[in-house]
Specification:
This protein is of the alpha/beta class and about 270 residues long. The chain has ten helices and nine strands. The N and C termini lie close together (about 10 Å). The structure holds flavin-adenine dinucleotide.
């Protein structure tokens, strides 16, 4: 069975939240396993993430809050875990997080995602299904690919149930990563994170910071379209659909869409696949 999930980020205004919930309702028709909601490292969106998670959960399809550990104390994390348990949340995306540039890891009590996974297991046992992040093209701060693989294995062994990848545009990097991890004795499902292509300049900026490679043939084509957003969207849909086909045919257990709080681009790809 192919699992489907969608990711949102917390909005800042009531109007934004209304729009987000309308997008949630549109996507709900495709029966995703869960909707995840990101968290601002250091707790900058703590209440907004909670409020949106609460409302999504209330509407009937599971919500999975992201929870990061840098900049949050154990006591703050413990309190959030309790609040999530109280409203019936059973899945968490457990992350280290990124503090604003220059802040490093600060004086965080939990410094890596494996510490957070261990902490959640110690506090709440098997209550939560825990997702962690995976980087087929290597986390940008990792000293090298091998150590990044070992660190991924470390958080799987700490008690993660499954993983969601950083987005990528090269299916081979995903297959290679999964093969390497399995050879290291870890067989948790690793779900590709899919970023639909709708806007070149934003995508290029974001990809630089998170270490996702935009292959030259895609970059050049997108650059050539300039301001022609219809062509960018059409080409993006074709490229991402083709990659998702390959991923699913090659054994990827599901897809997790980075929706950027929009339904159209993710749904266009998903409808091409089913
Ligand atoms: P880790 O697994 O801790 O890895 C971070 C770095 O430290 C890597 O280089 C790794 O090799 C190294 N490392 C890991 N463990 C150890 C160890 N024990 N000792 C030494 N080195 C180690 N960010 C947010 O702020 N909010 C979000 O909601 C959010 N959601 C995300 C969702 C997904 C699916 C993904 C892929 C990323 C998300 N991020 C989010 C971004 C993420 O927080 C950053 O990429 C962050 O830099 C790393 O988080 P991590 O959980 O992968 O960290």
């Amino acid at each position: 069975m192919t699992t489907l999930s969608f990711e949102f980020f917390p909005t800042k205004t009531d109007e934004g939240t209304e729009k987000l919930l309308a997008v949630r309702d549109e996507l709900a028709a495709y029966n995703p396993e869960f909707f995840s909601v990101t968290y601002g490292a250091g707790g900058s969106t703590r209440d907004r993430t909670y409020a949106i998670v609460n409302e999504i959960q209330r509407r009937g399809i599971a919500a999975a809050p992201h929870l990061s550990c840098v900049g949050d104390s154990k006591a703050e994390i413990r309190e959030l875990l309790t609040r999530y348990q109280e409203i019936g949340i059973s899945r968490i995306v457990a992350l280290r997080g990124d503090l604003p540039s220059g802040a490093g890891l600060g004086s965080s009590e939990l410094r890596h995602a494996n510490d957070l996974v261990e902490f959640i297991r110690a506090e709440t046992g098997d209550h939560f299904t825990l997702e962690v992040a995976a980087y087929p093209e290597m986390h940008p701060q990792a000293p090298n690919f091998e150590q990044d693989l070992e660190n991924f294995v470390r958080k799987a062994k700490a008690g993660a149930n499954s993983a969601i990848t950083q987005y990528f545009f090269n299916a081979d990097s995903y297959f290679y990563f999964v093969d390497r991890v399995q050879a290291m004795g870890v067989d948790i499902p690793i779900i590709p994170g899919i970023m639909p292509i709708t806007n070149y300049s934003k995508l290029a900026r974001f990809s630089d910071s998170c270490g996702a490679d935009i292959p030259r043939w895609i970059r050049k084509q997108l650059e050539a379209y300039g301001d022609d957003s219809d062509s960018i969207i059409r080409f993006g849909e074709e490229v991402i659909t083709e990659m998702c086909h390959r991923l699913l045919e090659g054994g990827a257990p599901g897809l997790h869409f980075y929706t950027l709080n929009q339904a159209r681009a993710s749904l266009a790809v998903w409808k091409n696949l089913v």
